[in-house]
Design a protein that fits this description.
- The complex is a heterodimer of chains A (678) and B (515).
- Among the domains of chain A are: 242 residues, no CATH class; 51 residues; 26 residues.
- Helix content of chain A is 73%, strand content 4%.
- With 678 residues, chain A is mainly α.
- In chain A, a hairpin with a 2-residue loop joins strand 1 and strand 2.
- The termini of chain A are far apart.
- In chain A, helix 5 packs antiparallel against helix 9, helix 6 runs antiparallel to helix 7 and helix 13 runs antiparallel to helix 14.
- In chain A, strands 1-2 form a two-stranded antiparallel sheet. A two-stranded antiparallel sheet of chain A has the order 3-4.
- Chain B is mainly alpha-helical.
- Chain B has one domain.
- Chain B contains 20 helices and two strands.
- In chain B, strands 1-2 form a two-stranded antiparallel sheet.
- In chain B, strand 1 and strand 2 form a beta hairpin.
- In chain B, helix 3 runs antiparallel to helix 19, helix 6 crosses helix 9 and helix 13 packs across helix 20.
- The two termini of chain B are 39 Å apart.
- The chains are: A mainly alpha (678), B mainly alpha (515).
- At the A-B interface, strand 1, helix 5, helix 6 and helix 23 of A face helix 11, helix 15, helix 16, helix 17 and helix 18 of B.
């Protein structure tokens, strides 16, 4: 048994260490600029191999967990880190249904992106650097997923942020890429602040719960509802903490008000956008809420905030996506919208359903991005969709893949998106009788189901149909790209069937909590309604872009200001520029001014006063002390003169002096005598 | 030998000074190697002490409280004033002595271009003696002597080998520190006057031993001598504040910080490294070594204002100022002020996590600020300016340097996995238990830290590769200067126990005085 445990721990460690080793090796090659024959091939093969190892082991563990059933879990200890208030934060990992599924999917998508990058990044300058950071990202993401405590998770959390920063800024010569990377990191850092503050409170709560910092909730018995009585400055700590965690999640998963970094992040290489900014890293916020789902259920106010934020983000981003012209920015806003939809699900208590959508989304969104990557190769990395058209006949494979992924994201039967979206809508429907908020949330869900096909098919038609435009150039040897596209299509088709007869949600029932099922009828009705909404949206899109493009142009021409406002994404970026950024800039300028003028002047004043005092004492010395001395000298001189004059040398004069003295002394004695008598 | 190991550690480098000074001018190149040898042996000594330092197996030299002191040396120095030559090492001072050795050697590697080598290196060795002496002295008078001793070479090292306004900077540095020293001298005299280690009320036996002063009842109020100018509480509060000012100048605490940016900008790179890496730690060390143990009740009373609030102000003010700088060296200098704020905040908690964090923060900030200043020096060496806006695309011409500099910058903003994250997190977690509002305000500093570091990083390293006009990547000596610090940052980031286990006992002893 000991032997078994040992090997389990080693294997589990290997999930993380394998890509980390890849990072070290390729980072080494990149750092010392080691050159050898077929270096790029070597780098590519090793990097992919290391991720492949992670994928194999995590799938093995997933099957093992699966054989244990929904309560199965495999803990492993990798090392100790530090402890706070005697709470040990260790490098421990926990593989349970949630993290097991997540780890397998992340290593799989990462592997696909690694293989795809072989062709995409061909002959790029920083080939080794690219794969090194991609490996590091995979390791960090797996840390984030597999960690069993919140501090280790935070390591992965900021680690993926760092990798995202490095990969967005991969083309560091470009000014916009480096600016976008800075923006992404700064906004994520704001979320990290919220995360850290949440950890403050969780440590504070630890004395009462003995848990919450660790994700193995099942082993601890305590009532979260009792925690509602713990207050901090008049508010229940549990709500504050949940809210802070949500804020952290919202920054990572690009929700209102933090979402503005994600569209800019598209400045990075496209495979990176597919992996980090669509399938994996941006889902970390959702994963955090899933991990802490028991905790969030005890904070109803925050749950409502989550649902509302998700709904607004999703609708807003869907609308923005309709008015973008950059092929990747449409997909970025689509990601924000879909993540918002998942947040809407989480906030409504549909945790398992939200997770299911996260998985299907990972596949079909990665598939869309990788299609976009292929198209960008053909068109010399010019992503403006207005300069595209009729590409379907040039590359039927990419067109088909894009089409299937678009059907999937639109939620059309029988593609993956249909199943996951339908599940969420059903849950929203079931919640309907719990107040006006639930009505709003359900209608928001339907609205999103309508908007999504609208923008994705707008994109599809603009790229693949219509007049043939663009400086199209076929690329040779895109075998990796093509095979990966096919693989992803299969996955984004098949993943929908994961939940046949509740298999998926059942597997998760012990790890991810779920609100009681109210068992309302009308599931087929929902499916039919959502399905018809989607299909009508596709149809509208077809009418506008293929059948009657002139009508669309006419509408656009009439609505100048509104249209500009929409294409400018409501000028949110500019608003932040003028408020938050300006405020910080001003604050720092003023504090620098304060330092220069007030503090330095104070120092100068002190030195000035010291100098004045010394000058004053100098003049005191000169005018008072010296003059006094001179006066004394003068006086004694005068007295000397007088007494010298008295010394005449004549005897009779001296006799007079004696007589005078005797008289004075005698009269004084008589006076004193009289004084004593009376 | 074992009995005098600390004295050897402190004074051994002084032997190098005459060797350097008698060297003929044409051999002045060797003086670097002499200095290196005379600093390497102390490094090995400190590592040896680290290996034998075993707080589980204590000796109890002065007091049953201090079970963590080792290698005590005690000799009578000035008998009529009860001044002894007392040295000893505990976990906290050990960590700082190791830091001193590492930073001194790292700093030495980037001194290859300085003129007047003989003078520079002799003062450098003297500085080392002063610094280690401060960390190892257990007698307040001896502490004071080393404190002043270190001031003297520093003044000349800034004033002679500095930049354009070096004389102004040196005098400003000297005067500020001197003001602090006056307060310390005042407290020293008061401690001497009012101490009594003999329990018999008839016999007065004064002491300046820091360990003995910390024992309850040793430091008495003015009443014991029949003085009744003020009550004992007020008197002690005044002593506390005076001593705090003495240390605050060194840390530096707002608003006593204005010497720091000037001194850093004007000092040459190795001296900046020493300044930020070691000298700033002396203030915090003094608080931990003398202020808190000797006056614990006053510390509890005043910690929210003088430690917690000051820490938060340091963090936010330093960060905001750093954000406004265009001179990279000034930026790093202000970031030091912010980082020392975290240490202050950690101390203000008066609990184990906070102390752990503060001590660790001293170490990590020592290594990281040294890396940052070396990076500034590397850039200055090539382009002879430090204006952030005039750089660009350095990653292109200096890819290796960029990786190490990136490590320094990201460590500066406390990325998890790097040592500074653990130290700052400990400071914050510890402080949250005592001062939750201050701590949340301070935690906002991590956003600002990311802002100023990454803003500078982006402008310097990314962008147009031709903007800077740099041709040459890291030289070997620069690489050697950065490498050990980078290694420490990485290793302590994932295995902080290497450090925390060493200081654990001393920190526990400190924190058990309060709770």
């Amino acid at each position: 048994m000991d032997y078994f445990n040992l090997s389990t721990e080693h294997l589990a460690a290997l999930i993380i260490f394998s890509p980390a080793a890849g990072f070290l090796m390729n980072g080494w090659i990149s750092f010392f600029n080691i050159r050898f024959a077929k270096r790029d091939l070597f780098v590519f093969l090793t990097a992919s191999l290391f991720v492949f190892i992670s994928f194999v082991i995590s799938s093995y563990f997933l099957f093992q967990i699966f054989s244990f059933g929904s309560e199965g879990k495999i803990p492993a200890h990798l090392g100790s880190w530090f402890s706070v208030n005697k709470i040990p934060f260790q490098f421990d990992i926990l593989i349970d249904p949630l993290s097991g599924i997540m780890a397998a999917i992340i290593s799989l998508v990462s592997l696909i992106v690694h293989l795809y990058s072989k062709d995409y990044m061909k002959n790029e300058e920083g080939f080794a650097r690219y794969f090194a950071v991609l490996n590091l990202f995979t390791a960090m993401m797996l840390i984030l997923i597999l960690s069993d405590n919140i501090m280790f998770l935070f390591l992965g959390w900021e680690g993926v942020g760092l990798c995202s920063y490095l990969l967005i800024g991969f083309y560091f010569k470009k000014q916009d890429a480096s600016r976008a990377s800075l923006k992404a990191f700064m906004i994520n850092r704001t979320g990290d602040f919220a995360f850290l503050a949440a950890v403050f409170f969780l440590i504070h709560l630890y004395s009462q719960t003995g848990s919450l910092l660790f994700f193995d909730f099942n082993s601890v018995n305590f009532s979260l509802t009792e925690l509602r009585h713990v207050h901090f400055s008049g508010l229940p700590v549990i709500e504050i903490t949940a809210f802070l965690l949500f804020a952290a999640a919202a920054a990572k998963s690009a929700q209102i008000p933090f979402y503005t970094w994600l569209p800019d992040a598209m400045a990075g290489p496209t495979p990176v956008s597919a992996l980090i900014h669509a399938a994996t890293m941006v889902t970390a916020g959702i994963y955090l809420i899933l991990r802490m789902s028991h905790f969030f259920l005890a904070a109803p106010f925050t749950m409502d905030v989550i649902a509302l934020t998700g709904a607004f983000t999703s609708i807003l981003a869907g609308i923005f996506a309709l008015f973008q012209f950059d092929i990747k920015k449409v997909l970025a806003f689509s990601t924000i919208s879909q993540l918002g939809f998942i947040f809407l699900a989480l906030g409504s208590g549909a945790f398992q359903e939200g997770f299911f959508h996260l998985i299907t989304h990972a596949f079909f969104k990665a598939s869309l991005f990788l299609c976009a990557g292929a198209i960008l190769i053909y068109l010399h990395h010019n992503g403006d969709m207005r300069k595209m058209g009729g590409l379907f006949h040039k590359d039927r494979l990419t067109g088909t893949v894009f089409f299937i992924a678009a059907l999937s994201i639109s939620g059309i039967f029988p593609f993956a998106g249909f199943f996951s979206k339908d599940l969420i809508l059903i849950r929203l429907y079931e919640n309907l009788n719990s107040g006006p908020l639930s009505v709003f949330l359900f209608s928001a869900g339907l609205l999103i189901a309508f908007i999504t096909p609208l923008y994705i098919f707008r994109q599809f038609f603009m790229i693949f149909f219509g007049k043939e435009k663009g400086n199209f150039q076929h690329s040779q040897n895109m075998y990796f790209i093509k095979s990966m596209l096919i693989l992803l299509t299969l996955l984004s088709f098949l993943s929908g069937f994961l939940n046949i007869s509740g298999f998926f949600t059942d597997f998760l029932k012990h790890t991810v909590s779920s609100m009681a099922n109210q068992g309302a009828a009308g599931h087929t009705l929902i499916a039919a309604a959502a399905g018809s909404l989607s299909i009508s949206a596709v149809f509208i899109s077809w009418l506008l872009h293929i059948k009657h493009p002139a009508f669309k142009e006419a509408v656009i021409a009439r609505s100048g200001a509104i249209y500009r406002f929409l294409t400018g994404c409501f000028y949110v970026d500019e608003f932040y520029q003028k408020t938050v950024i300006l405020f910080i800039k001003k604050a720092s300028d003023y504090s620098a001014l304060f330092d220069r003028s007030i503090i330095d002047s104070a120092v100068r004043l002190v030195s000035e006063i010291t100098c004045r005092i010394s000058r004053l004492s100098h003049s005191f010395e000169k005018h008072v002390v010296l003059k006094t001395v001179r006066l004394i000298v003068q006086t004694s001189k005068t007295f000397g003169m007088i007494s010298r004059n008295l010394q005449t040398g004549y005897l009779h004069n001296y006799l007079h002096y004696i007589l005078g003295g005797v008289l004075i002394l005698g009269s004084m004695m008589i006076w004193l005598d009289l004084w004593r008598k009376f | 030998m074992e009995n005098y190991i600390l004295s050897i550690l402190i004074f051994f480098p002084l032997i190098g000074i005459p060797l350097i000074l008698i060297l003929p001018a044409r051999f002045s190149g060797i003086s670097f190697w002499i200095t290196l040898i005379f600093l390497t042996l102390p490094l090995f000594l400190t590592l040896y002490i680290y290996s034998i330092y075993d707080p589980a197996n204590p000796i109890r030299p002065f007091s049953s409280e201090y079970t963590d002191l080792m290698l005590i040396e005690n000799a009578v120095w000035i008998e009529q004033f009860h001044i002894n030559y007392t040295l000893g090492v505990d976990g906290i001072s050990l960590s700082l002595v190791i830091l001193t050795s590492v930073i001194s050697i790292s700093g030495l590697f980037i001194t290859r271009q300085v003129p007047h080598k003989a003078g520079f290196y002799s003062l450098y060795l003297l500085l080392f003696t002063g610094m280690t002496g401060v960390f190892l002295a257990l007698d307040f008078f001896l502490f004071y002597v080393f404190w002043e001793l270190m001031l003297f070479p520093m003044y000349f090292l800034i004033g002679i080998w500095g930049g354009e306004r070096r004389e102004y900077a040196a005098i400003k540095f000297f005067l500020f520190t001197l003001v602090g020293s006056i307060f310390m001298l005042l407290v020293l005299i008061l401690f001497y006057l009012f101490s009594d280690i003999n329990p018999d009320p008839e016999i007065r036996e004064r002491t300046l031993n820091i360990v003995q002063l910390a024992e309850p009842g040793v430091l008495q109020g003015p009443f014991a001598d029949g003085l009744s100018l003020m009550d004992a509480g007020t008197f002690r509060i005044l002593i506390w504040i005076s001593l705090f000012i003495a240390f605050a100048v060194k840390i530096p605490v707002f608003p006593l910080h204005s010497w720091l940016p000037v001194a850093h900008v004007e000092a040459s790179t190795p001296i900046s490294v020493i300044l930020a890496g070691i000298l700033l730690k002396m203030g915090i060390y003094g608080i931990l070594r003398i202020l808190l143990p000797v006056l614990p009740d006053q510390s509890v009373l005043l910690a929210p204002y003088f430690l917690a609030m000051a820490g938060v102000i340091n963090i936010l003010y330093g960060s905001l100022n750093a954000l406004a700088q265009t001179d990279l060296k000034r930026l790093v200098a202000f970031s030091s002020i912010a980082h020392m704020g975290f240490a202050l905040l950690g101390i203000s908690s008066l609990n184990q996590d906070g102390f752990n964090g503060a001590v660790f923060q001293m170490f990590t900030h020592g290594t990281i600020s040294a890396m940052l200043f070396i990076s500034v020096g590397v850039l200055y060496d090539r382009v002879h300016h430090r204006d952030i806006t005039r750089f660009g695309g350095v990653i292109h011409s200096m890819p290796r340097f960029s990786v190490l500099a990136a490590l320094a910058f990201f460590a500066g903003l406390a990325l998890p996995g790097l040592s500074s994250f653990v130290s700052e997190a400990l400071c914050l977690f510890g402080a949250f238990a005592q001062h939750p509002y201050y701590t949340i305000a301070a935690a906002a500093g991590i956003i600002l830290a990311a802002a100023y570091f990454l803003n500078a990083f982006q402008k310097i390293f990314f962008g147009n590769p031709d903007a800077s006009g740099i041709k040459e990547d890291l030289k070997l000596n620069e690489f050697f200067a950065l490498l050990p610090l980078a290694a420490l940052t990485l290793v302590l980031g994932i295995y902080p126990s290497l450090f925390l286990d060493t200081v654990e006992k001393s920190v526990f002893r400190l924190s058990s005085m309060f709770f």
